[in-house]
UniProtKB/TrEMBL annotation:
Compartments, as annotated in UniProt: Secreted
Keyword Secreted attached: yes
Protein name per Swiss-Prot or TrEMBL: Trypsin
Cited Pfam families: Trypsin
Protein family: Belongs to the peptidase S1 family.
Major localization listed first in the record, in broad terms: secreted
A GO MF term: serine-type endopeptidase activity
Signal peptide (from-to): 1-31
GO cellular component, one term: extracellular region
Keywords per UniProt: Disulfide bond, Hydrolase, Protease, Secreted, Serine protease, Signal
Gene3D superfamilies: Trypsin-like serine proteases
Gene Ontology biological process terms from the UniProt entry: protein maturation; proteolysis
UniProt xrefs under CDD domains: Tryp_SPc
Amino acid sequence: MAETLHRLRRMVGALVVAVLLPLMGASVAMADGQIVGGTRASISTYPWTVYLATTSGFQYCGGTLVAPNKVVTAAHCTEGDSPSAVRVVAGREDKQSSAGVVANVTKIWIHPNYVDATIGSDVSVLTLDRNLSYATLPIATSADSALYAAGTSARILGWGTTSSGGSASRYLLTATVPLTSNATCSSAYDEYSSTAMVCAGYTQGGTDTCQGDSGGPLVAGGKLIGITSWGNGCALAGYPGVYTRVSTYSSLITQQINS
Ligand code: 4AZ
């Protein structure tokens, strides 16, 4: 129910920006990019990229297929939800198409320590009602610390808004962003935890995940290294996007994959 309220708030926010502000004659500075500052991606290139939708088909988060019947997403995407309220859409690049498959969810696991994204443990694993015939993405483990080096180019993917408070994308979008150092992210955010999180973004901003991209993948070295989690606005200079550090939670995630 908390997540339903979040969703309603986001939908009302989008309505205000899309309808009311133009009627009021207000001009809104809009980054005109994709994700923010990205481009369209083919689902065939990233077949493990999925989205979470309501039973009426509204896309509200992203996710990653990590086993034929398991999806990694953010805890803040599934908090308070019953499995019966969640659909996983795979193999569909265009939200307005009927391509791919819509799976039901039989179980939602949320990290036991999860309270709020800015505290950490923002990770959830969904069990699907069937095995999907799409390629899966391996998750980063404690052996993959090299993938987290500052400056590493990482890929973001999602159907979220193309500007802060803007409208969501009809199509899957992608971009690459450099991982920041822990020092850089600590300077930006008092809440940053170098064990629970990793940050990515250009010093000058311009490219980032945004509302609705949450739960989706941050990929480097052919592995899931992060889960889109939070940030101050989107694509702002000095405020990188914050992602769940997957390697910290890999044992628990693997336990869920094998459960
Ligand atoms: C969100 O609200 C959200 N710029 C996702 C990612 C970021 C900020 C907000 C990072 O889902």
